[in-house]
């Protein structure tokens, strides 16, 4: 957990911003280093991340509500937005790059190994 994904073939480390971009794009990507294709996959841990952020946001809002004297909803809004942003910041850490199982790729890999 809490590590950025690497290329499954050449283990090139992808920077945070790069992972963010890849997550928005198509699911199949080509490694900029070894030019091999891999799948961009979201980990199940992301659901847990979402749940934790949601619970924290609700708890924080309840605490704010209890301590709020006037009926001002701005602090609630700020805390909710802050948690949503926090959740999005951690998204790239829950992305993984998987090898694509193709007979073509397997064959090409095997022929390379023989050389
Ligand atoms: Zn690569």
How would you sum up the major sheet?
3 strands, antiparallel
N-to-C series of helices and strands: HEEHHEH
Helical run tally: 4
Strand percentage, roughly? 5-15%
Instruction: Please estimate the helix content.
Output: 40-55%
Poorly predicted spans: none
Oligomeric description of these chains: single chain
Q: Could you say which overall geometry the principal axes of the C-alpha atoms support?
A: rod-shaped
The separation of the N and C termini measures: 36 Å
Briefly note the structural class of the backbone. Answer: alpha+beta
Mean model confidence by pLDDT: 84
For the secondary structure, the number of strands is 3
Q: Largest sheet, order of strands side by side?
A: 1-2-3
Radius of gyration: 20 Å
What ligands are attached or bound here?
A: zinc ion
Instruction: Quickly count the domains.
Output: 1
């Amino acid at each position: 957990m809490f590590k950025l994904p690497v290329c499954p073939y050449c283990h090139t480390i992808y920077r945070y911003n790069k992972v963010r971009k890849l997550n928005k794009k198509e699911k199949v990507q080509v490694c900029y280093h070894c030019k091999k294709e891999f799948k961009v996959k979201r980990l199940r841990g992301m659901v847990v991340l979402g749940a934790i952020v949601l619970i924290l946001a609700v708890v924080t809002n309840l605490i704010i509500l209890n301590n709020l004297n006037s009926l001002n909803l701005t602090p609630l809004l700020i805390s909710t937005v802050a948690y949503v942003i926090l959740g999005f910041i951690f998204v790239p850490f829950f992305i993984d790059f998987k090898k694509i199982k193709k007979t073509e790729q397997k064959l090409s890999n095997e022929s390379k190994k023989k050389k």
